[in-house]
Sequence to fold (165 residues):
Amino acid sequence: MAEGIIREREESEKRIKEGGFYDIRNWQKTDVKQLAMKTITNIETNHLYKLRKPYCRKCAINAVDKRIEEVNILIQKAKNRGKSDIKIDFKIDFEKFGEKGMFEYLDNDQPINMPESKGSHKIIQTGVYKEFKCKECGSNIAMQFENEELEKPKTPAQTGTPSTQ
Ligand SMILES: [Zn+2]
Fold:
């Protein structure tokens, strides 16, 4: 997230991409949160469905709430001192809530059972639910793995072996 400033901006400072600032004198914490939620959802989706790794959404949201509180205090303090030229950044490293060290693998895989085919009475196991526990907030994160994925040999990208092609 970008930086904010609480005074009238020069024209050049309005150009965010060129190092400008947002005017946060009237900042809406709901807007900030909505923006953060979008970012979190994108990163969470990437971890769960592309990287196939757990991600703690709860810890990410907690970090946003904490930062909003801190920023509110900073703005209030600046206002009290009649200061209007403070810089605030909302940068939060959302990737870290998907880091391997965050999670404990619970090793209690639950089978996913489905009929062998549509309308069939024969039930077969098509995969497992794997559960992970976030060490920070204690949330459980369940992920679904199909048999094919569990049996699939790891690709060079996953093992770190350089491709010979
Ligand atoms: Zn957590």
